[in-house]
Amino acid sequence: MKIQNLEILKFKPELNKKVKLVIEPLAPLSMVSDLPGSYYKVQEIPDKFKLAGLFENILGWQFGKKTRQDILKDLKKHYKKKFKEKDYDLDVSNSGFQPLLLDYFEIGMVYKSESMNYNDLWKRSFRRNDEDVHPKGTPNLDYQKLREKQIQLKSISLKEFYKSNLSSFPLYYTTPTLREYIDYLGQNIQISLKIDQTLLSLLNQAINECSSAYLGNSEGWVEIKIEEL
Is 201 in contact with 220 (CB distance < 8 Å)? Predict the structure, then answer.
């Protein structure tokens, strides 16, 4: 996916366009507002953080936390120098997501039709290098170590075997977790927005090339359309 221009972030947003965002779910969605322990409760409709993530996904802005921190650091310097703003910052969601486009649109009316919620088991990934919970949660192992594991575990603990063979195990172990999903039963979600003209142009350009993206998590594929009002 092509990364669209980041220069928009150097200009203050002007919410001078009104549009209708039409989201057609291609699969059940799981939009979670924070990171709970044992149960992931779904949101019925996407909030502003979810839409900011959706827009950045459409634009190809697949940035990790470190990259986002570096971008924010540069923006702080830019806003201080050009706009004399010393306290420029970006909001962070309850899940720790720090979007770059949160100030470039506002949500108005939201319409969704009848939907159905259900729970499903979802594999959550963890990493633990110092305990046997990691090898117990990884069903796969380097085939060259399988026989050695069977032999050595008669005399040493799984924890010791794991710590001495870290590179032979998967980087993460998984644990089943209840996650709630919402099925919109073939209907779409319609959201009115006030949006920055430059962002709208970037989104339209990206959607013309590919109108599919994901919303909530990497399994929640949706089709996107934007109609100017």
Answer: no
Asked if 192 and 45 count as a contact pair (C-beta separation under 8 A), the reply is: no
Residue 2 lies inside a defined structural domain of this protein: no
Residues 190 and 224 in one domain: yes
> Does residue 74 sit within a domain?
yes
User: Alpha helices, DSSP H only, in 36-186?
Assistant: 48-58, 65-82, 133-136, 143-152, 158-163
Whether the pLDDT of residue 39 is over 70: the answer is yes
In a domain, 221, yes or no: yes
Domain that holds residue 160: 128-171
Mean pLDDT of 29-57: 89
Tell me the pLDDT tens digit for each residue of 112-158. Answer: 988 999 999 888 888 888 888 888 888 777 777 777 776 666 667 88
Residues 50 and 134 in one domain: no
Please check whether residues 155 and 190 belong to one and the same domain.
no
- Compute the distance between CA of residue 190 and CA of residue 109 in angstroms, rounded to an integer: 8
Least Cα distance to 18 among 201, 202, 197, 225 occurs for 197
Stated pTM of the model: 0.83
User: DSSP assignment of 68-97, as one string?
Assistant: HHHHHHHHHHHHHHHS--S-------TTS-
**Are the CB atoms for 49 and 99 separated by under 8 Å?**
yes
C-alpha 160/C-alpha 210 separation (Å) is: 49
Residues 23 and 105 in one domain: yes
Establish if 48 belongs to a structural domain.
Answer: yes
DSSP state of 45: S
